[in-house]
Amino acid sequence: MKANANDVIIACDFPTAEETLRFLDKFTDRKPFVKIGMELYYGAGNEIVKEIKRRGHKIFLDLKLHDIPNTVKKSMRVLSNLEVDMTNVHASGTIEMMKAAIEGLTREDGTRPLLIAVTQLTSTSEEAMQKQLLINADINTTIRKYAANAKEAGLDGVVCSPLEAGFVKEECGTDFMTVTPGIRFADSGKDDQVRITTPEKARQIGSDYIVVGRPITAAEDPVAAYNECCRQFLGE
Ligand code: C5P
Fold first, then answer.
1. Integer Cα distance of 85 and 75 in angstroms
2. Which residues are bridge partners to 209 per DSSP?
3. pLDDT band with cut points at 50, 70 and 90 for residue 194
4. Which amino acid residue places its CA nearest to atom 20 of ligand 1?
């Protein structure tokens, strides 16, 4: 899979397999790229991953691994058998851990899912980072450095806020992929997201993939909302 393709990824933040499949049943034409996060994975396990894959969707398995390199390597080996298209780790696990993740993820034939890193969670404020984690740099410097570390380890890109995608590209080059949640339509509410932007603006700033949850999953007509995202982000 080409790292810097553009697509809209739907965050399937549902608690059960039934709800997820009922939601995906609505998409009869085009099969969207979907993100499976911890809630659904811990609740429904490998079976839901396999079923969504069987239905023809691409999958971003968002489990954000962060452990000692050996454990991450072995866990990634297990995940690579699931045939997902993209997965991730925390960049704060160090370059060594990220290298181990790639090693574990790479199959015998040399193929592997895309691997991206979380820099700083968008829920972490600069104040919490400095006072609780004792990281004295400002948050954007940290994000730049973590992105550079991910690139050095050989990862394909990072998850970041769309508002950070520009400087990540500046730091790591345009081929380094940015996957950005925090997307809202111009006329909709923010929910609990803080640093948000529209699909159109995200594309202009440099997002390769946008991750969209509630603006699609909670819409009256999710297929129409998805198509509108594609229209704005992909210019379709
Ligand atoms: O519903 P909403 O569009 O806010 O969903 C965004 C998705 O992206 C959720 O699954 C959320 O956990 C995820 N995410 C995020 N911010 C990050 C990393 C992941 O919103 N920094």
1. 16
2. 7, 179
3. confident
4. 181
Any residues with Cβ below 6 Å from ligand 1, and which?
11, 13, 37, 121-122, 159, 181-182, 191, 193, 211-215
The structural architecture, per CATH, of the domain 7-234 is: Alpha-Beta Barrel (3.20)
pLDDT in tens, 90-133: 999 999 999 999 999 999 999 999 999 999 888 888 999 999 99
Q: Which of 53, 64, 99, 201 is catalytic?
A: 64
Greatest CA separation for the chain: 50
Give residue 212's pLDDT.
Answer: 97
Eight-state DSSP code of residue 164: G
Measure 213 CA to ligand 1 centroid, in angstroms: 7
Residue extents of the structural domains in the chain:
7-234
Residue 9 Cα to ligand 1 middle (Å): 11
Respond yes or no: is residue 64 known to be catalytic: yes
Rounded-to-10 torsion of CA 21, 26, 32, 34 = -30
